Amino acid sequence: MNLSPAIFGLRPLQAVDLDAVLAIAAASPEAPRWKPSDYAPYFASATASPPLLRIAMAAISMGGPEEKVVGFAAGSLLLDGQQNLCQLDSMAVHPDLRRHGVGTALLRAILAWAAQNGADHLSLEVRAGNTSAIRLYERLGLRPEGHRPRYYADPEEDALILGMPVTQVCNQADFH
Ligand SMILES: CC(C)(COP(=O)(O)OP(=O)(O)OC[C@H]1O[C@@H](n2cnc3c(N)ncnc32)[C@H](O)[C@@H]1OP(=O)(O)O)[C@@H](O)C(=O)NCCC(=O)NCCS
Fold this sequence. Notes:
This protein is an alpha+beta fold. The chain has a single domain, classed as Gcn5-related N-acetyltransferase (GNAT) (Aminopeptidase, 3-Layer(aba) Sandwich). It has helices spanning about 20-25, 35-40, 100-115, 130-140, 165-170; strands at about 10, 50-60, 70-80, 85-95, 120-125, 145-150, 155-165. It has a 7-stranded mixed sheet, sandwiched between helices. Mean pLDDT is about 90; it is low at about 170-175. Coenzyme A binds near residues 28, 99 and 126.
């Protein structure tokens, strides 16, 4: 993809983004393998009400004549009055545009949404061997909270559960 990686913006994911998102997911075997219909509840047009809220953000390249989706992240928030847990459900960045801060910006946007909507904690599952994602998550303050043996198939792999208090994220000096 011939894009300027330094110039991108974020906006809520829309149905028109689906083909681009499917292509990025297909090029990202570490990401969850969702069917096209799995994305629909996360679109900005989808109606959601407590206790279960969902969000998805698209990272958009602004470097060319037309905007292109270069990454996405999807999250959900269960407002159960106890944990008020936000989960990062999926995230991927176009392989040609990684290591330019897109993944970090996407996760920060999910965290900001979670904080604004009453989340107490963020949690996610990640393949134990996915060092790229684990480093990103740890840089943002997530820490190991558990382990699910043989959680993933094809190839079989353990899941690490990482998490952090959402308030801690929002108090970080560099959070914006
Ligand atoms: C994980 C992923 C979303 C990261 O996206 P990204 O835009 O490249 O992330 P960033 O540029 O914000 O990286 C932030 C930091 O994470 C770490 N990191 C990211 N990719 C890395 C890599 N390949 N190797 C080592 N560290 C890495 C680095 O510390 C990086 O900071 P730096 O570039 O200043 O060193 C991307 O690699 C991806 O789409 N992977 C496939 C799908 C996936 O694994 N999704 C997550 C599981 S659902």
